[in-house]
Hints:
It is a single chain. The protein is of the alpha/beta class. The chain contains eight helices and seven strands. The strands form two sheets. A four-stranded parallel beta sheet has the order 5-4-6-7, sandwiched between helices. A three-stranded antiparallel beta sheet has the order 1-3-2. Helix 7 runs antiparallel to helix 8.
Amino acid sequence: MSNLLSIQEAADLLGVSTNTLRRWEAESKITSERTVGGHRRYQVSDLLNHKSDARLTIAYARVSSRDQKTDLERQIMMLEVYCAKHGWSYEIISDLGSGMNYRKKGLIKLLKLITTYQVERLVLSHKDRLLRFGAELIFSLCEQFGVEVIIINRSQDSTFEEDLANDVLEIITVFSARLYGSRSHKNKQIVQELKNVASKL
Length: 201
């Protein structure tokens, strides 16, 4: 999206009519620039300042499997306490799925909110809760759309070796599921053997 929006794009962003925008401009509540042809163009930053009270704090939590439900609950509790401590009104979005899956329902919802300028800040318990690979891409997206990213436990992120072991485990799990079927005995056996090896690292 360009940093300069047409009157219709600006109205859509703020959730008002184009007539309301014209009235606000006449009342000096908002300003616009004019093109050579005389059309209004609005700065995204000016619109966001006008809309800042309505933007959301999103706290995102994720675990890879159902047997990590306790960890998910712990993440959510940590995020709730952190947001409440800072006095933010917030919404929790949680996902159950691999850190390499870009199509998780909660992640898709989060990206839609970010790219429609509805998010003021994103709060994570750990960096890798967002994605195992590609988190930096989403952080760049947040910067582009004016979203502050807060990672509560930067110093407690897992080590490189732990990340590598988890990444390898997830990659082999995905490919063995595709090869043998996610519910097959062969796949379950491979996954269990991998978990046994990973636990010894």
